[in-house]
Q: What sequence folds into this?
């Protein structure tokens, strides 16, 4: 009889375990609903991953464009500095040329005050003629 009681207890425990598993059974409708929800969520996740990848690619392009723009700015600043240095050199050359022009103008004015050799020769001949006339006039008066 002890054996029958033990077997009965084992059967009761086994059946309670078996029936407890059956009590948690999910209906087919509930299962299909959860599977459909999972599929929608997976599709949303796939779309979000694709959007993330596209956004990362766009960000990489924007970073590359920004870097190119910064490099262009650096090149333009260097070109500006070079140009400004060139402009300073041109201005210095212009100022030196203007100073030289002023010096040359002063020399021209100084030389303009000096009679030209031709004019000096003409004046000398006129003076000679005048002196000769005076001398001849004085001789003529002495001879009278």
A:
């Amino acid at each position: 009889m002890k054996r029958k009681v033990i077997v009965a207890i084992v059967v009761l425990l086994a059946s309670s375990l078996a029936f407890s598993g059956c009590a948690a059974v999910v209906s087919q409708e509930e299962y299909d609903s959860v599977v459909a929800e999972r599929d929608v969520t997976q599709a949303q996740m796939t779309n979000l991953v694709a959007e993330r990848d596209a956004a990362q690619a766009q960000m990489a392009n924007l970073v590359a464009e920004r870097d190119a723009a910064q490099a262009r700015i650096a090149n333009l600043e260097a070109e500006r500095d070079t140009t400004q240095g060139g402009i300073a050199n041109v201005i210095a050359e212009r100022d030196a040329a203007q100073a030289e022009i002023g010096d040359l103008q002063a020399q021209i004015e100084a030389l303009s005050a000096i009679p030209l050799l031709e004019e000096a020769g003409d004046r000398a001949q006129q003076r000679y003629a005048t002196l000769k006339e005076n001398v001849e006039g004085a001789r003529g008066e002495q001879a009278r």
The chain has a mean pLDDT of 82. The CA atoms of residues 45 and 126 lie 117 Å apart. The radius of gyration is 60 Å. The helical segments are 2-23, 28-113, 117-143.
